[in-house]
Write a structure and sequence with these properties.
Helix 1 packs antiparallel against helix 4 and helix 7 (about 155-165) packs across helix 8 (about 185-190). It contains 10 helices and 8 strands. The protein has a 6-stranded parallel sheet with strand order 5-4-1-6-7-8, with helices on both faces. The protein has a two-stranded antiparallel sheet with strand order 2-3. It has about 230 residues and is α/β, with parallel strands linked by helices. The protein is globular, with a radius of gyration of 17 Å.
Length: about 230
């Protein structure tokens, strides 16, 4: 994996804006993800995967993750079945997943300090918004955007769209930090000229996150502290 080149934060335009990732970052859903992944594997007789193995191999876009497990890319027909199975099992369990420890207080305190934040996820937009609302945290965000379009995409294009929609609020990429749990989050941030902080409680192992060349942290509280430090 090519390390994401660190962007230069525009400290003259502080305060910093946070773009939060959802799955594996604000939402502690890794158990639901593993269960849904193994359900999709079972459709084709693949052995179950452990959390440790998942974190070692996970990559976005997701077909590349399956390639690492299968030794080849899934066919279009296989992908359709695996993707549909994953989402069927995942969304049946997603309602029982809670927010990551401290997430609610961190969102509240960031907003109380007069700072801005938004949420961008590769979860389908029509599924994401009601779930964020159900957790009662939607009021903390300038925007909540989920994925529009196919599920085998990376976050970069969606972040371009997200940042363009935030322009009217005065948010710029040069003073934005994306907090996520995947190396793809760092690549997306670098793509738009933002910074990234990666959290180890989600989809990747620490060692794989460290290859992205951005700060890696073990708690969301540490992620927020690091975002403040990046603001100068």
């Amino acid at each position: 994996m090519t390390a994401a080149a660190p962007a230069v934060l525009d400290t003259a335009a502080a305060p910093v804006h946070i773009v939060w990732d959802w799955n594996g970052t604000l939402l502690h859903d890794i158990d639901a993800v593993i269960a849904a992944t193994n359900a999709s594997f079972a459709e084709f007789g693949f052995a179950p995967i452990t959390l440790e193995r998942y974190r070692e191999l996970y990559v976005v876009p997701v077909p590349k993750f399956y390639e690492r497990l299968m030794g080849r890319l899934p066919t279009d027909a296989e992908w359709e079945v695996m993707d549909a199975t994953f989402h069927r099992y995942y969304w049946a369990a997603a309602d029982t997943a809670g927010l990551t420890d401290g997430a609610r207080e961190l969102l509240r305190d960031w907003q109380a300090d007069g700072l801005t934040q938004s949420l961008l996820s590769l979860a389908p937009h029509e599924k994401l918004v009601p779930l964020v609302q159900a957790h009662g945290i939607d009021r903390h965000f300038l925007r909540v955007d989920g994925r529009i379009g196919p599920s085998h995409t990376s976050k970069a294009g969606h972040l371009v769209r997200h940042m363009a929609a935030l322009e009217e609020t005065g948010v710029t990429a040069g003073r934005t930090v994306l907090i996520g749990d995947a190396a793809d989050d760092a690549l997306a941030a670098a793509h738009v000229g933002a910074r990234a902080v990666l959290y180890t409680g989600g989809s990747h192992s620490r060692s794989s996150l460290e290859q992205a060349g951005v700060p890696v942290v073990d708690s969301l509280a540490e992620a927020v502290r690091t975002a403040r430090e990046l603001a100068g």
